[in-house]
Amino acid sequence: MAAGPVLPTVFNLITTWGPAEITHNGVRFDNPYDGPVPEWVGHTMTTVGVRGPDGSVRTTDGEIFDFSQAGNGAVDKNDLEFHLVFHDAPGPSRTANLPPPLSFFYHLTFERVKVEIKQR
């Protein structure tokens, strides 16, 4: 059972998934819920820009993004964003995907991203 995307259809330059150890100021922030305890389910994306200067996600018409119309989302191909997501894993009683059946979900978006490829 999949729900609509929370972001417009967007190009990802690189994406990762896997167990994540989260720290804050050097102190571990363990997952007390479900999944790869004490790690979190981790996910990163380096994408073209989806957020405007005010942090909102908009449609091509300038309205607030509606995830039921992912193809109508505005993206800025001249901008890059880095997304860091971590959450617990859904438990065995999963019945739906919206809202996500999670106890904890954290999504950070970083602006002013620069990707540099160096040859050794």
Largest sheet, spatial ordering of strands: 1-4-5-6
Largest sheet: 4 strands, antiparallel
Mean pLDDT: 85
The helix-and-strand class reads: mainly beta
Count of distinct structural domains: 1
Our count of helices gives: 0
Helix % is under 10%
- N to C succession of SSEs: EEEEEE
Q: What global shape is seen?
A: globular
Question: How many beta-strand elements?
Answer: 6
Alpha carbon gyration radius: 16 Å
Measured distance between first and last alpha carbons: 45 Å
The stretches of 5 or more residues where confidence is low (pLDDT under 50) are none
Strand content: 25-35%
3D architecture notes:
This protein is mainly β. It has one domain (12-111). Helix content is 0%, strand content 34%. The chain has no helices and six strands. A four-stranded antiparallel beta sheet has the order 1-4-5-6, with no helix packed on it. A two-stranded antiparallel ribbon has the order 2-3. Strand 2 and strand 3 form a beta hairpin. The chain is globular and about 40 Å long. The termini are far apart. The mean pLDDT is 85.
